[in-house]
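Let's practice the habit of predicting before peeking. Look at the sequence and jot down your guess about where helices and strands might fall. Then scroll down.
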Amino acid sequence: MATLTFKKLGRIVAIAVLCLSLVSCGLVNPRPPRAVVEMAIAQKLSQTQAVLYRQFASSVDPADRAQVGRIRISDHHWTTLDNQPAVEVAGTYHLKGGQLTAAQRRQTRDFDLYLRRGDSKDQWLLLEPVLVRSEEVLRWQSTPLIKPEVTSPT
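Done guessing? Here is the structure:
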């Protein structure tokens, strides 16, 4: 009789540990959706392209700019930045379109993004480091992710 109770207790403990593991794997702090990661990379790429085009006074039509493609997420884990929970997402992507050469399109580029949840369930914010010169302290600026505009054929 005592062995039967011991087995039941062992099963209950095993089930409790399994449930806690599942909760810690993603129910409390889930992985950001793939579309969110793609929007974050596209937004960073767009910002970089805009700065470069302004510096070189290029008159490239925004529709002819490179776009993000073939994203592979290799790692994500939750951390704390400025006392706020954030998820670090790392992986690779390729560029497509624009005025890229074939070699540039084949090139694999690494990314490392920090995201945190916004006020609503579906909102995510891109966290970018900002160095405050006077204090030489690294701070994190949060920017809402903007869905890319879809241009319709005319």
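How did you do? The chain has a mean pLDDT of 76.
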